[in-house]
Specification:
single chain; about 270 residues; alpha/beta; Spore Coat Polysaccharide Biosynthesis Protein SpsA, Chain A; eight-stranded mixed beta sheet; 12 helices; about 40% helix; globular
């Protein structure tokens, strides 16, 4: 394990209070789910008695091995982070700006692990497997999970899949990157983020050939890697990863699934 691996966790996401408050009350925790007019802080939702932020920190700290760990989020998180050896970076309104701010905080590190804080099942072992599988000569490695692997771990989940010629995949919520090299293309990150709500606009950004090959199910993982390299100017690789890196919480249905899955398993 590279001792110089930094960690960036983004915890700036919000979820609609009206849609998530009831589900949140089903957990056995007592967190206040702080937020503002934009909603509840997603990273403070609890699963199995722990906040999603705590779950993420518990998963990455053993991998960081005392290295720099940055959390990008609201100032209310400062007290909750006091027992952890981490740095809190002020959040921005846009998710992609939070990623850029996190990378800027670790720009002096040759490699950094990026992880979102909405992964209710993530573990240190899953993170370690992913990091160990990332080639050190690539500037960006991103996690993907095959559908059959994902479905065995999370049967009947409300997750969605991308259909490629190689098979069906869930996009993971982890990446190992070269911060300095990726920041050189910060404007590209912004362009992607501005189009993230529209598959059509994202496809246009990737190019007509990619769009056509995806439509006829001829697009391969290698095609995606190549196009990412062309857009970023760095070597990129998709890394097949443990399913725990692919189950994130964006909807009330995904949150309820996580709560019920933990309840079915019972205390660890």
């Amino acid at each position: 394990m590279n001792a110089e691996l930094a960690v960036v966790l983004t915890a700036g996401g919000r979820v609609p209070r009206a849609q998530f408050a009831h589900a949140a009350s089903l957990d056995d925790g007592s967190d206040s789910y702080d937020g503002d007019e934009s909603g509840m802080i997603k990273a403070l939702l609890r699963v199995g008695g722990r906040s999603l932020l705590e779950i993420a920190l518990s998963a990455v700290l053993p991998v960081a091995r005392g290295g720099t760990v940055v959390v990008v989020g609201h100032s209310v998180l400062k007290e909750r982070l006091s027992k952890w050896a981490v740095q809190l970076v002020p959040e921005h309104r846009e998710a992609h700006e939070n990623l850029i701010a996190g990378l800027q905080a670790v720009v002096d590190h040759p490699r950094a692990l990026y992880l979102t804080t909405d992964l209710p099942f993530v573990t240190a072992e899953a993170v370690r497997q992913f990091v160990d599988a990332c080639p050190v000569d690539k500037g960006l490695c991103y996690a993907i999970v095959r559908r059959d692997v994902f479905d065995r771990r999370f049967p009947n989940s409300p997750s969605t899949y991308a259909r490629l010629r190689d098979g069906e995949f869930v996009a993971g919520c982890a990446a190992v990157v070269s911060p300095a090299r990726l920041l050189q293309r910060a404007q590209w990150i912004r362009r992607v983020a501005q189009r993230r709500k529209s598959l059509w606009k994202l496809a246009l950004l990737a190019g007509g050939r990619v769009l056509w090959r995806y439509a006829i199910r001829q697009l391969t993982v290698a095609d995606v890697e190549l196009r990412a390299e062309q857009l970023l100017g760095i070597r990129c690789g998709a890394v097949e990863s443990p399913p725990e890196l692919g189950y994130d919480i964006d909807t009330p249905q995904e949150y309820l699934y996580a709560l019920r899955a933990v309840a079915d398993v019972g205390p660890a």
